[in-house]
Amino acid sequence: MLEPGTHASRLSRTRLVRIAGKGSGSGSGEADPTVSKGDSEAANQQYPDQSNPPQVSHYQGSIMLQLSNVNTYYGPSHVLQDISLEVNTGEIVCLLGANAAGKTTTMKTIFGLVRAKSGSIAFDGQPIGRQGTDEIVKSGLVLVPEARRVFSRMSVLENLEMGFYVKRSRAEFRDNLDYVCQIFPRLKERLKQSAGTMSGGEQQMLAMARALMSRPRMMCMDEPSMGLSPLLVQTVFDTIVRIRDEGVTIFLVEQNASMALDLADRGYVLQTGKIVLSDTARNLLNNDLVRQAYLGGA
Questions:
Q1: In angstroms, rounded to a whole number, what is the distance separating the alpha carbons of residues 92 and 220?
Q2: What is the model's pTM?
Q3: In whole angstroms, what is the distance from residue 10 CA to residue 7 CA?
Q4: Which end of the chain is less congested by CB atoms within 10 angstroms, N or C?
Q5: Half-sphere exposure for 131 (CA within 13 Å, toward CB)
Q6: CB contact at 8 A, 80 and 97
Q7: Domains in the chain: ranges and CATH
Q8: Which pLDDT tens digit goes with each residue over 123-133?
Q9: Distance (Å, rounded) from C-alpha 163 to C-alpha 238?
């Protein structure tokens, strides 16, 4: 694999701009500028200011997740083509790409929801490419899925219990519940509320808290900003940094390239199933091709 700070490959300006289109908005359209009362209250929680995070490496000396020459198909369609990437312990690494680039398929392949036809996937040095999703979660790798996927008819507490299913101790459950409520104090006030009646921002926090209930070593997040107002997007991204600072390695799939690169250590660019660029987040932010394709040429 390439060391941080190197390019996986170089594209012509025309090719990279063409695959990104006019912008990098959410797959479900632009975020709703209207902020609900619940979203406003959630966003006003006190989180560390990460608007200008220090550009320091959080690499801790070992590879946590590694994909090597992974190929995934949907029927005859070759969706992921020789994907190779790695996430080191302690990092936030983002995967950028336009709609239909293969970002969500990458997540599904990691968690065994779609099987790779060839290549290898390893978590903490152990192969997981043929493991079931439950086994992968038990090993300490969890997913916050696209569009949150909370159990809308269940209470907040019941959703959090679902995230604890790989554990057994009730004492540990109370400890983990206290842990996630410290990170998401708004949820502590809503434990008996039906998840389906919560705002979009609160549901995103619940999805993240549910994943944290198993106390994972690494969290994969698929489009956490999707459908959220700008105010809530900032809150969610601040919380991602806090979770990393709590010791959880982060792999982030995101179309909001500017914010993702602001908080990430490194990034990869995915184009129609292929990794076409990789570098440090700082270098990607300053890369003319990336700026033109994903940052509006700013």
A1: 10
A2: 0.77
A3: 7
A4: C
A5: 17
A6: no
A7: 13-147+216-294 (3.40.50.300)
A8: 999 999 999 99
A9: 22
